[in-house]
Amino acid sequence: VEKSSENCRLIRVWWEHRDRFLVLKFGQFVQDGPCRQALEHNGVVICGRSYKFLFDKEPDEKHSNWQMFAPHDGGPSPLRSRNSLQAAMGDFSQVPEHKLADRFKMLTSTTKFVCILSDDQVHTVEDIATPDNRYIHSDGAGTFGSDIAEQLLDVLGEATSAVQVRVGGCKAMLCYDPTSTGVSLRPSSCKFGSDHLYLEVCGFAKSTQSGSHVSKEVWQMIGEIADVWECVEQILNENLDSHMSMARLLGTVD
Q1: Strands lying side by side in the sheet with 49-56
Q2: Beta strand pairing call for 49-56 and 6-7
Q3: Which residues are within 8 A (CB) of 216 and not within 5 positions of it... i.e. 6 or more apart?
Q4: Which of 67, 109, 126, 194 has CB atoms 3.0–4.6 Å from 169's, for a disulfide?
Q5: Distance (Å, rounded) from C-alpha 16 to C-alpha 202?
Q6: Backbone angles phi, psi at 27, to 5 degrees
Q7: What distance in Å separates the CA atoms of residue 196 and residue 203, rounded to the nearest whole number?
């Protein structure tokens, strides 16, 4: 049940101890007052269990959203302290201080579990960048193969050509490549080190009833460039002629 449900990796990994985690929300009054410091230092006691501050999920918002954690002295070693839990979930030593909250949020964002990838299903491909690496054109972009497409279909209930995923310490947008297998990730998608090879979906591309609205901004831009529009019109006409020829061959149209 837990694998197919929408959940987060932190709960998914520690499912047997999920009652050790909770989210504490409070508004501007607490955030600006001395209560915030007291809560961050002492935590909060609920039903006799002491929950400690893990990280702020919304550090820049007026209403705080804290992920809390109750250390388990007699439980698995990663659950015995805040530091041991963080170490078990990933290597954040190279993450700048101002980025830590965003990286921790990758562990608590709601996702759909797809599968646990094997090592040989995860491939690394180089980024496409300018010679000085100032601009990375392939930032966060990757691919998934036919074997993953089948598993995505089972979980999502429909076929998709692109998915926003989390894999270990990577966050990426993957497009379908029928000639490949597994997932291909770029260095730019890696935000922290992690041994967890859970493939989790945050969102995916799907058809809509008003499909023309998906690219209306693009069509508007093309419409204002005469030369480009002529090329697009030519391509559409050639494709239409090709489909009509095939339909006539099959006898589906006169």
Answers
A1: 21-26, 64-69, 49-56, 44-46
A2: unpaired
A3: none
A4: 194
A5: 23
A6: -95, -165
A7: 20
Residue 227 in tokens: 């030369």
DSSP secondary structure string for all residues of 35-104: HHHHHHHH-EEETTEEEEEEEES-TTSSSEEEEEE---TTS-GGGSSHHHHHHHH-B-TTS-GGGHHHHH
Give dist(CA 143, CA 59) in Å, integer: 32
What pTM does this model have?
Answer: 0.71
Q: What is the pLDDT of residues 110-164, one digit of tens each?
A: 899 999 999 999 999 999 888 888 888 889 999 999 999 999 999 998 888 899 9
- C-alpha–C-alpha distance, residues 241 and 95, integer Å: 54
Tokens 């299903």 label which residue?
Answer: 121
55 burial class (0-12, 13-18, 19+ CB within 10 angstroms)? buried
